[in-house]
Amino acid sequence: xxxxxLITGISRHLAAKLAQRLERDDQVESIVGVDVEExxxxxxxxxxxxxxxxxxxxxxxxQASEADTLVHLNIIATPTRVGGRGVMKEINVIGSLQLxxxxxxxxxxxxxxxxxxxxxxxxxxxxxxVFTEEMGMRSAPSGGYARDAMEIEQSARDYGxxxxxxxxxxxxxxxxxxxxxxxxxxxxxxxxxxxxxxxFDPRIQxxxxxxxxETLYRAVRADHPGIFNVxxxxxxxxxxxxxxxxxxxxxxxxxxxxxxxxxxxRLGLIDFPTDQxxxxxxxxxxxxxxxxxxxxLSPRFSTRQALEExxxxxxxxxxxxxxxxxxxxxxxxxLLNRSLGERAGAxxxxxx
Amino acid sequence: xxxxxxxxxxARRQPDRCQAVTxxxxxxxxxxxxxGFCGVHQPPAPPERIGPLSAQRVRRLLELGRRRLLGxxxxxxxxxxxxxxxxxLLPLVKPLYEYYWRADWLGMENVPxxxxxxxxxxxxxxxxxxxxxxxxxxxxxxxxHRHVRLLAADLAFRLPVVAPLxxxxxxxxxxxxxxxRLLAGGELVGVFPEGYKGxxxxxxxxxxxxxxxxxxxxxxxxxxxxxIVPVAIVGSxxxxxxxxxxxxxxxxxxxxxxxxxxxxxxxxLFGLIPLPSKWVIRxxxxxxxxxxxxxxxQDGMLVFELADQVRDTVQQMLYEDLMLRRxxxx
Lengths: 352, 330
Fold this sequence. Notes:
The complex is a heterodimer. Chain A has 12 helices and 14 strands. By secondary structure, chain A is of the alpha/beta class. In chain A, β1, α1 (13-23) and β2 (28-35) form a beta-alpha-beta unit. Residues 345-352 of chain A have low confidence and may be disordered. By secondary structure, chain B is of the alpha/beta class. Chain B has a 7-stranded mixed β-sheet with strand order 5-13-10-6-9-7-8, sandwiched between helices. A two-stranded parallel ribbon of chain B has the order 1-2. Chain B has a two-stranded antiparallel sheet with strand order 3-4. Chain B starts with a strand and ends in a 6-residue tail after the last helix. Chain B is built from 9 helices and 13 strands. Classes of the chains: A alpha/beta, B alpha/beta. Chains A and B meet through β12, α7, α12 and β14 of A and β1, β3, α1, α4 and β8 of B.
C-alpha cells in the first residue's frame, strides 16, 4: 500500500510544486491538498479540498483522506495577501493549533512534516555567526512571522510529545530564492534602486526553491525526525547580492527606515514586512550540516547560484551588467593611458 | 638594431602593408605580418607606467574594481572578505603601525604557519586598535601571511560602519560557538580576555593586566585542543591616555566607558588623533593544551591555573619589552 499524503496550503507555490513532485512518484497512493483558495497550477492526481485549517471540520478531511503523512505548509509570511496581520496570525498560530489538535484524532497519521523558518533564530548583534539547530535564540523575535513560526514549532512539539511513536520533521528554511517563487525578498531585489540600512551590510543566505521542494519531498518519502536548517551553501553580503542583481543601492538611515517601509507599503510600492527589517540590518546564517548528514542531500544551488538563477529569470533592468562593466574598465584604462601613460623605449617617429 | 616605430595618424596605409612609418616619414611598404608590422618594424611597446603606477598594476586595479562592482568575490560564512582585507585595508593600516607607531615585531616565529591556535593578548588604548595592529602585522609580516580572526564584543556588531567592516575583516562575536567553529576550521583566533576592563582602564594603571575574564579562553583552547600563544603589546596604552572615565556620559550614550584624555573631548576631532607612541609586539612561546584529555575543560582548577600562567607570561613579556623601550615615544 502506498503513502497517503495530506498537504495544507496547497494554493501556495511551494506546496503545489511539492504536490507535482509527489504525483510523479508511483509509491504515493493519494495526495489531498487543502486550502481556502484553489491552487495556482494544474494538479493531476492531487485532490483539492476547500477547507480552512482553522475550522474544526478539518478533522473530517484528515479522517476521510486516511492520510498517514501530514505536510503542513499553510504558514504565511506576509500579511497583505490574507488581509492584515491579525488574520495572518490567526491562520498561522490558531490554524496550526487546530490542525495539530485534529491530527490527534486521525488514527492513520504517523508523520508530520512542517515548514518553519530560520527567522526563529532572530537577527541581532549578539548572535553567533552561524546558527545550528540546537542553538537557542539570543534575540527572540518580538513579533511577526518569526514569532508565529516559533509558536507553531512549539505547538508541533507539544503534539509530538502527546503522540509518541510518530515522526515529526521541522524544516527551518532560509529565505527562498529562485526564478519562479515570489517573496518579499524577491520583490525587494526587483526594485530599480534598492534601499539598504545605512552603515550596515548583513550576511544573507538563501535556499533555492527547487532544493526546498526536494528536501520536503525527501522528508515525506523517508523518515527524518528532528529539526533541520534548510539553507544553501555560502553566504553573500547584502551589498554583494544587490550588485549581482546589477542594481544600485540607496542607504537609508536606520531611524527613518521603519516609517519609510510602512509608508511604502501603504502606497502599495513594496510589501516588505517591517518585522523583517531587523534581518536586513544584522543578517542571519544557518548551518546546513545536519541536513546534509541526515538527508544525504547537498543543496544543488549555492546562495550565489540561487540568486543568479533569480536574476536570469527576471526581466528587470540592470544598471551593472558584465558587458557594461567590461566596457567601463576598458574605457577607464584608455583614458588613464592617454592622459598619464608614458611609453618606454625610443621617442616618437625615430627609425632605427 | 630593431626599429621601434609609432604609427602616425593619417599616414597613407594599405591593409596588407606594414603600419610603421620610416625615418623619412613615408609609410613602410613591406608586407605586414599578422601583427600588422613587417620584420624590420616592431609594434609600439605598450606603456610601462601610468602616472605613478605600472601599467600592469593599473590593469589589475581596474579589473578588481570591475569584479567588486559586479559582486564577483567570495566571502566565508563569517563574512570574511580576504580580498578586501589584503588589497584595501592592509595598505590603509600598514603606514599607521609601520611609520607612525614604528612597531617592532618579536617572536613572530612562535605563531604557527598552519593549523589552529589561540592568540591571547593584553588589551589597552581606549579604542581597540591594538587588536587590529596585531591582526594586520601578522598578515603583513608572518612567513605564512596568516589572517587572525579576532573575537570582538557585541558593541562592534551594533555600531554602523564598524559592524560590516568588523565582519569583512574576518572577525566575529566573542562567543563559544563562533570561536570553536573557527578553531575547528584551522583558523588563527585572537582574543583579549581583559575585554572592556582592559581597553577602558585609566592611564595610571597602564601595563597592569586586568583579570583575564573567567578563563573562558582556556576552556576554549582545551575544548578545541589548540595551543595558546601569549601576545604582549606595548605602545597601545599611550595612544589615548585616559585620565578620567566619565561614567555618567557613558551611561547616557550606552557606551562601556567614556574616555577623557588630555586632548579628548576638548579638542574635538583633533582629540581623536592617536599619539605617536613607540610600539613593541611580542609573541611568546605556544602553551600546548593537547596533553590534557578530552574533558579537561570542565576541570575548574586546571582552567584557572592555565589562565594564570598565560596572564603571568603576558605580564612578564610586557615588563621586558618596557625595559627595551627607552621612552614611550622613541
